[in-house]
Design goal:
Blueprint: E1 2-8, E2 12-19, E3 24-28, H1 34-42, E4 46-51, H2 57-60, H3 63-69, E5 74-78, E6 90-92, E7 97-100, E8 103-109, E9 118-122, E10 131-135, E11 138-139, E12 142-143, H4 151-162, E13 169-172, H5 177-187, H6 192-206, E14 214-215, H7 216-222, H8 231-236, H9 242-255
Parallel strand pairs: 3-4, 4-5, 5-6, 10-13
Antiparallel strand pairs: 1-2, 2-3, 7-8, 8-9, 9-10, 11-12, 13-14
Helix pairs in contact: 5-6
The chain binds zinc ion and fe (iii) ion.
Fe (iii) ion (FE) binds next to helix 2.
Length: 256
């Protein structure tokens, strides 16, 4: 599967799935239309799907303009976001499936950042890793803020995602990695994998390269918000209860 990262707005990413044989494209979370439309027309692709993870403006702001250019594109998003995503055609629930370029994505219902948040997951095939589009749930080295959900909900959603194979590539919607890793180092200063990742991410960013995609394996090793059950993490926030550990991490991050 060809996946293209398009930086939009201040620090968002829109991702485009490309089917060169049919000259078609699917876009995730177009918070702005112009950079996406420019890339599609340069590459002679017709947009046929707009797939949305959640209703926030920085993920949906480009939908209406893209539909003016590509009026037959189908807008899909979570069923719980009904009324909050412009021109939504399809209302997705846990377990629904969507197909593009002969590959099928599964829908995961993952409330926490918002109560209608969903992820799209392409399971691995013989020759490619799985692909996870998780919006603002897990970020590189961090996680989304709890705007609508509770710590327990977010922990449950992240727990599902962290059980995907380590090789799963994770496409999250913001470039927050470097700052997240700075925070992570305050929690686990002696985590060598985290130190190495921070070093590499710094080089990436100083060359204006995205740090995305990450992988589930790397997040499990270095992201404190997937590590509530690691003793050193619980100790860092003086808790031996997983939900409380997670909530305290989130609280500390707000202050950071
Ligand atoms: Zn959001
Ligand atoms: Fe966002």
């Amino acid at each position: 599967m060809e996946i293209v990262t398009i930086p939009i707005l201040k620090d968002n990413y829109a991702f485009v799935l490309v089917d060169r044989s049919r000259q078609q494209a699917t876009v995730f979370d177009p918070g702005a239309s112009a950079p996406v439309a420019a890339w599609l027309s340069e590459n002679n692709l017709e947009l046929i799907n707009i797939w949305i993870t959640h209703h926030h403006r920085d993920h949906i702001g480009g939908i209406e303009d893209l539909l003016r250019r590509y009026p037959t594109a189908i807008v899909s998003g979570g069923a719980n976001d009904r009324g909050r995503i412009p021109k939504q055609h399809k209302y997705l629930n846990e377990g629904d499936r969507l197909t593009f370029a002969d590959q099928t994505a599964q829908v995961f219902f993952i409330p926490g950042h918002t109560l209608g948040h969903i992820a799209y997951y392409f399971p691995p095939t013989d020759n490619q890793p799985g692909e996870l589009f998780c919006g603002d749930t897990i970020f590189g080295g961090g996680c989304g803020r709890l705007f609508e959900g509770t710590p327990a909900q977010m922990l449950g959603s992240i727990d599902r995602l962290r059980q995907l194979p380590d090789s799963t590539r994770m496409w999250c919607s913001h470039e927050y990695t470097l700052n997240n890793l700075r925070f992570a180092l305050t929690i686990e200063p002696y985590n060598i994998d985290l130190q190495n990742r921070y070093h590499k991410a710094g080089i990436n960013r100083s060359n204006s390269q995205p740090t995305i995609p990450s992988t589930i394996g790397l997040e499990r090793q270095t992201n404190p918000f997937l590590r509530w059950d690691i003793p050193a993490v619980g100790l860092a926030v003086a808790s031996n209860n997983f939900v409380e550990t997670f909530a305290r991490l989130r609280g500390r991050k707000e202050q950071f």
